[in-house]
Amino acid sequence: MKEAVTAAGLACPELVLHNDAKYSASSGSCSEDLSLAVYSNDVSLESQLDFWQPIDRGSINVGMNWTVVSPDPKLIQQKLGGTVLQTGQ
C-alpha cells in the first residue's frame, strides 16, 4: 500500500506501523495526516468503516480491502480508484 500511495504522488518516507485501524490486518502512518490500512476481508473493512463513521476523520479513501486517510483524497481516488467516504456526519 505504501508503494501505491507514493506512486500516486504522496510522500511516505517512512511507514510507522501501528494498530490505529483496529479492524485492519495491518495499518500504519506516513505522517500525522497520512495513514494506510489493509483488511483481511470485507467484514473487517465494513466494521472499520462503521467504527469511523460517527468520528470526524475527514475524508477516507476506501478501496477493495484498503483505506487511506490523506490530505488529498481526490488524488488518491484518481490514482488508486475506490471511493471517498466523508466521516463525522
Structure description:
With 89 residues, the protein is an alpha+beta fold. The termini are far apart. The chain has one domain (2-86). β2 (26-31) and β3 (34-38) form a beta hairpin. Strands 1-2-3-5-4-6 form a 6-stranded antiparallel sheet, with helices on one face. 28% of the residues lie in helices and 30% in strands. It has helices at 2-7, 42-52, 73-80, and strands at residues 16-18, 26-31, 34-38, 59-63, 66-69, 83-86.
Topology:
Blueprint: H1 2-7, E1 16-18, E2 26-31, E3 34-38, H2 42-52, E4 59-63, E5 66-69, H3 73-80, E6 83-86
Antiparallel strand pairs: 1-2, 2-3, 3-5, 4-5, 4-6
Short description:
The chain is α+β, with helices and mostly antiparallel strands and 89 residues long. It contains three helices and six strands; from the N terminus they run αβββαββαβ. The protein has helices spanning 2-7, 42-52, 73-80; strands spanning 16-18, 26-31, 34-38, 59-63, 66-69, 83-86.
Class from helix and strand fractions: alpha+beta
Distance between the termini: 27 Å
**Compute the gyration radius: what is it?**
12 Å
Overall pLDDT confidence: 91
Sheet-strand content, in percent, reads 25-35%
Low-confidence stretches: none
- Could you give the order of the helices and strands? HEEEHEEHE
Shape: globular
Q: Tell me about the largest β-sheet.
A: 6 strands, antiparallel
How many helices? 3
Counted beta strands: 6
Strand order of the largest sheet: 1-2-3-5-4-6
Helix content: 25-40%
How many domains in all?
A: 1
Quaternary state of the chains: single chain
